[in-house]
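Sequence in, structure out. First:
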Amino acid sequence: MSSTSPVTKAVIPAAGLGTRFLPATKAQPKEMLPVVDKPAIQYVVEEAVAAGIDDILIITGRSKRSIEDHFDRQFELEYYLEAQGKHENLSNVVEIAELADIHYVRQGEPLGLGHAISVARKHVGDNSFAVLLGDEFMAPGAALLPGMIATHAQYGRSVIALQEVAIEEISRYGCAKPEQVSDNLVRILDIVEKPQPADAPSNLAVMGRYVFTPEIFEKLEGVQPGVGGEIQLTDAIALLLADQAVYGYTFEHGRYDTGTVLAYIKTTIELAMERPDLAPELGPFLDELRSRRALG
C-alpha cells in the first residue's frame, strides 16, 4: 500500500529546449519568459507553495542557470533597493528566495517528460509527490492541486488532472478513459498519448498536474523509449494502472497556458487585464487596436 503521508514535495520539469519560442529561448529558458512582470515558473512555484508544498525540485538542463539565480538572494540588488527606499520592490525580491526549499538537478539529455521525472527519484525517495509542468499554471486560489492532494490522501493512489477539451483538439494531449466516481473524480481505466479524435476514449485531456505514488518510478524504468528516444510519462501511467488504481481529478476553469506562442500571448494579456494598475490603460488600447484593424 502506498504511503498517504502529506504531499510536501513537488517536481517541476524545466529541462526542455523551448524550440517553439526561438529565437527568444536561444540563450534563456522558456520558463523564465515574463508573464506580465513575473517569469512563468514563479507562478508554478507559487501554486505549489499555496497547496502546502515546501520542498521543490526543479529539473533543469543546459542554459537554465537563470532559473537558479531567480530563486536565489541577490544582495547587490537588495542593497540598492533598500538605499533607494523602494521597499515594496525589495520585499518582492526577498520573498522569491523564501518561497520554499528549492533544489535543482540536471536532466543531462532531453529524453522526454518521463525521463525528466525519473531523475527526481533519489530526491523524492519513497514519498508521494506532485508534478507541475512548467509551461502552465493555475489561477491563485484555484482548488485543483489542493483537491488532488486531498484525493490522494483519501485513496492513497496517484491522481491526474483532467479537463474536457473539444474532441478535435484531443490529439494534442494524453487522453483518459474514465469511470465516474463523484462529481469531479473519475477512476482512469486506460490512458493513451495524443489519440486521433476517432480513436479517443473520451474528451478528457491530461493536463500538467499530477500527484504520484513512488511506484511511478518503477514503471518509468520499464517504459521502452519511443520516437527520438524519449520516455513517455503516459506509458508509465498505463503500466501503473495494471497494478493499482489511478484517479482523474476533473476541473473546468483557472488554467493558464504558456506552452505555445499564441497561448503565452493570450495568458499575458488576460493576466494584465486583471491588474488594476494596467487594465485601465490596456483595455482602451486593445479596443483601439481592434477598431484600427477592423478599419484596415
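Second:
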Amino acid sequence: MKEANTVADAPREFIAFRIGVQEFCIDIMSVREIRGWTPATALPHAPPYVRGVINLRGSVLPIVDLAERLGFPPTDASARQVIIVVQVGAQIVGLLVDAVSDILTLTTETIQPTPEVASAFVRSFVRGMLAIDGRMIGVIELDSIMSTETEAAA
C-alpha cells in the first residue's frame, strides 16, 4: 500500500525570473515583495555584486546584483529591471533581476540534480534544474547567495 505524501513531496510554489537569457526560480515562501528598480546608494568596500542599499519604507535594504553574484556580466540596471525582496535567514535582501516571469508549482520529484559538469561554485547556488515546457530553469538556493562576506558588507 502506498504511503501518504510527506511534507517534502507536497507541491511548493516558486517564482521564476530571468537574468539575461537564463531562467531561475526561488521558493515563493522567501519572497516578501517584487518592486521596480530604485537606484542604490553604494557601500564602500562592498563585494562587487552588492549594488548598494535602498530605503524600503524606513529600512535599509541591501541590493545584490544576482547576475554578477552568479558569475554573469553585471546587470545594466534601468527602469525595466525589478528587485525581488527576499528573506534569507534573519536578513531581508533585494535581488536585482531582469524580469519576473512565472509562478511555478513543483514537487521535489520535478527538480533534477545540478549536472556534475557544473563547478562546485555553481552547484553551491543552483540546487537543481527544471525542464518545463522546453525551458531549463535553475533552482536557486538563497542561503548560499548571501555568504558571510555579503552579510558583513550589508
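Remark: Residues 1-5, 148-154 have pLDDT under 50 and may be disordered.
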